Amino acid sequence: MIVFLYGPDSYRRLSKEREVIEAYRKKHGSLSSARFNFSEAGDLDKFKEFLANSSMFEPDKLAVVEEPFEAQDAELRDTLKPYLDGGGKTTILVSSDDKPPVKLSFLTKKPSHYQEFPLLEGKDLETFINKEAAARGVKLRTDVLGGLVKAYGGDAWSIVTELDKLALMSKQEIEAKPTLNYYELLNGLKYGRDPRAKVTALELILSDRRDEPRRVFNGLAYRLRDFREATILADYDVAIKSGRLDYEEALLDFALR
User: Fold this and answer.
1) Based on the domain organization, do 16 and 94 belong to the same domain?
2) C-alpha angle with apex 6: 58 to 62, nearest 5 degrees?
């Protein structure tokens, strides 16, 4: 079986991806699974090898494929098509920002299980925001809802980040010095675009607030938006654990990116 999730709204797409994986694991229990990114050299060959190998102890397989269209269209078509009928014990979950090229258009036709995730707007966007707010125990005033729509449009990641901040503020006493709010500073470090502002946020966290560098680093890994962010932080984690960097050095390097 092939499940194809595509579209520029990566927040909803990745949420659906996690939902599919969790449901599959609940249904099949122990299974062989692997994740592939075709922008990385050799991953298509590893993908083929994974599909070809079988085990009597783990008959069910789940393969998650990212950046699928970095592979050659014809080669990927020939690899995927045998799994369309859903008769085997292998499920392939393909996730992409983009619509498939012509040779892979079968991904958006039955028997493929497909779902598109366009950027939301209008009433659909407002419904999404209200649903995410309710899940966090936040009741939005009409003006706040309108402000989120105006500020971020269909950028779901930025919207849920703001909702997370509102949820935290509703559960804790607002600090006397708003500029030293840990979560605001952490978000400034994580999502800021100006290195100078990011370094300032880091200095306030470590010097003024005296938060533990390890806690700050682990906080950066919470609610990652995409594979690129996960890769960046994973590389820093390896550098720290191998002794090439300490937490303060890794955080400063991250702030200067």
Assistant:
1) yes
2) 0
- The answer to whether position 127 is within a domain reads no
In which domain, by residue range, is 33 found? 2-116
Tens of pLDDT along the chain (257 residues)? Answer: 999 999 999 999 999 999 998 888 888 775 678 889 888 888 889 999 998 887 656 667 899 998 899 888 899 999 999 888 765 688 999 999 999 999 999 999 999 999 999 999 999 999 999 999 999 888 888 888 999 999 889 999 999 999 988 887 765 433 334 456 788 888 888 888 788 888 888 888 888 788 898 988 888 877 777 777 888 888 888 888 888 889 898 898 888 87
- Token reading at 197: 């502002």
CATH number, domain of 38, equals 3.40.50.300
d(C-alpha 112, C-alpha 158), whole Å: 31
CB count in 10 Å sphere of residue 167: 17
Residue 157 domain-assigned (yes or no): no
78 shares a domain with 6: yes
Side by side, which strands form the sheet with 90-96?
A: 32-37, 61-66, 90-96, 2-6, 113-116
